[in-house]
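Worked example 2:
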Amino acid sequence: MKKLLLFTTALLSANSITIYNNNLAHVSEDKNISVKEGLQTVKYTNLPKSIIVNSIAPDIKSKDINIYSMQFNKSQNFAKAVLEQNLNKEVSFFAKDKKLISGKLKKINPIIVESQNRFYTVDSAESLIFASYPNEDSINSYLEIKLSSKKSQDSTIELNYLINNLNWFSNYTITLKKDTLNMKVWATITNNSDKEFKGYKINLIAGELNRVRSGDMLARTPIARKSLNYAEAISPASAKVPSKAIEGYYLYKVPFSDTLAKNQTKQILLVDAKDIKYKVYGVATNRSFNRYDSQKLSFAQIIEFKNSKENGLGISLPSGIARVYKKGFYLGEDSISNTPKEQKVKLNTGLFFDIVGKKKIVEYIAKNHYRKVKTQYSIKNRSDKKQTVKIREYIPRYGNNIKYKTSCEKNCSYSEKNAFTKEYKIELEPKKSYTFYSEVEIYN
């Protein structure tokens, strides 16, 4: 005889949800079950509509219980379900003259009601009054797991699956002070699925996750929950949520259980760091080396700080949008990519208003297998304080043999990023200007 066990028991504290920043989440749930000896079917309800069916992976925590097969049944359309349940049964509706008519539901597509040997067409199920209402479990998605047990016993079933319609991203709030800045990093989690995750442990994964696509089918490998059970990471005091490397990604473990309601957006503070040393400078680029070309130089305002423990950070920073403020004023924003420890963060908040510049080609010679270009740079600081600017010069690849000259000196220095990229650094005093030349000869 077939036995059917339905379990929707209280969730255990081991339930967790790991959310990725590509509209994907991995759910791991433990539920208590009581099984009888022999072959039986367990029905698992409360599954979201956005579940990725071929990712479902059940596991029974008992050696005496074996799983043989499972069957997933998709949720039904409610209107269709209530019509099917009331087919050939008594229903009522209001006619155009507001008279209540009762009769038998004869057909559901289109909806036809028979009353006193007359047939009426009804526009929609919402216009009908029904005598019976479908059970919620009969219309929601559910999973049937066929298993056998050597004895009657209580056990735990662990179900891992992937779902769409959950996402997270980070928002940075940066407040500038004189020489240091304060930074808060918020994780914004959006649950657009039709399931509430009540009292779940929440994990966030940062990184670019590969997903295999074959035709219209998305093939994915279920993620074992045990791979996420790390000890608490040792993090600086600024890290409100510990982070840990996991196979090329970064895992952020929220240190408390929480609830993600349906269609809810929740924010969790990941980082609250203070007194981070930073510097501000302007950057302009020159990629044009055409004959006697002349153009204005615009300097982007860059805020730079190092993601190091010595600088009050030293944690893995997830990608997101950084908004910069000073003395209550909004100064601009930029995106931050996933940034490992000991790397520099550079934010472009806009263009300098008081730093202007111009570049002009003053000598240009082009022959077979040879080119010579001499460029004049003029920069002026119109502000009342000292400013630092950088000019990046990207030399065209006309040949591999390069000779290079420059008049950059005193409050100007330069470095070679590679054979075709030079960077000048100029310290500009208030209300002062600076002019220098660069000369490049290229041979094939």
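Residues 1-12, 214-237 have pLDDT under 50 and may be disordered. The CA atoms of residues 19 and 25 lie 4 Å apart.
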